[in-house]
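Retro notes - structure team

What went well: the batch runner handled both jobs without manual restarts.
What didn't: labels got mixed up in the shared folder, which is why I'm recording both outputs here explicitly, each with its sequence directly above its tokens.

Job 1
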Amino acid sequence: MQQNLQNVCLKTGAPMESHAATILTPFAFSKLQEQLVLAAHYASFSIEDGFLVRHHTKTEGGRKVYWAPQEGIISCSCHQFEFTGILCRHSLRVLSTGNCFQIPDGYLPIRWRRISMPSSKLLQSAPNDHAERVKLLQNMVSSLMTESAKSKERLDIATEHVSILLSRLREQPISLQGGRESQN
């Protein structure tokens, strides 16, 4: 309730900022807003397989951003999203110069949303569409990575459990309907 009552101050007036303000928690929104403000100081240049993004005062270097709008995929060589779950200024710059007015859903992780469902409810309502299942898993894995990287103990626990999970998944038959295939 407190989140819904809190007034949000938009700093850039960009459509992406307005969109994020309606979805993200105040903490996550403030982190994304910082990146949006900094994105305005960067230039993006189209290169063969993506974009080169660098600060307007630099003539060399920069970050490489790959963006596939049809698939809803964007990734940056700085890997900020993979570590924090918040898009970096480089990716945001490419999105804004590419006339993207909303942050792609896959880059608004469930853990940073105002209203998050318990994981058991998420799994029950998991969509049948392959792309949506991939986005759901990307959000969960992003959270796992962020939490696991905080200490060696957490990383050890995550590594152990992910190894077990991968082994169990590989033992499962693949069904075209998305459910378990019957074993005769």
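Job 2
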Amino acid sequence: MPVVYRPGLPRYLQIAEILRSRFLGAAGGRIPPEHALCAEFRVSRPTVRQALDLLVEEGLLSRQPGRGTFTSPLPPLPSNLRVIGSVEDMIALGDETRFKLLDRATVRPPAPVAQALRLQPAERVARIAGLRLTDGAPFQHATVYLPEAIGHSLRDEDLAKTSVIGAVERTLGLTVKYLEQVVEAAVAPRAVAELLGVPRRTPLLHFRRTYFTEGGDPVEHALTYNVGQRYPYTVVLLRAGRKG
């Protein structure tokens, strides 16, 4: 059956989407040669190569010189990760994984961070950067910004087995009431990709998350890059109770 392409989306992306679903979980198999894929999808060889290049960068395919292109085994999903969209689950993530501190400093915040934390122009922030790992493998790169006073209170805190926001609650006696979160697909900066051990230009999940107290005061703004295959992200939505 001929492929029906959606208008407005590059064909190589649509072909990659079809092949991704076709090969996912089929490790070690040789895929059809490029000329066969060109005939199947009715496109030129450069278009097919763009689609295959994307899947190679994602780690779904691997090229073996002289042999062809093969599907790659996917790493098993860590069973201990559970994020279902509540503040408690975000904090629990820090208890179930390990945090490797890379950098801790007091800096002038980028404008979006200052806006998220509602800071005055001259105010500074504490910045904490590191990798979150499970089974010894990194699945998340995090850069956390805190108002300077809050960051100062955590200067001696061991963050290896906790989340930063969990440490904020315990140390300062604050209670996080809600958070605002933006999730998008993004290509990580080169240094982040190297730290996560993924090829350059690999699409990652990029989170921008701000935590608020019951009074509506922001206490943390976090920017994270997550490896999708290593980070199962599930959202549970509940229907609000009806009145009357």
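One thing worth noting from job 2: Residues 37 and 43 are 8 Å apart (CA to CA).
We'll revisit the folder naming next retro.
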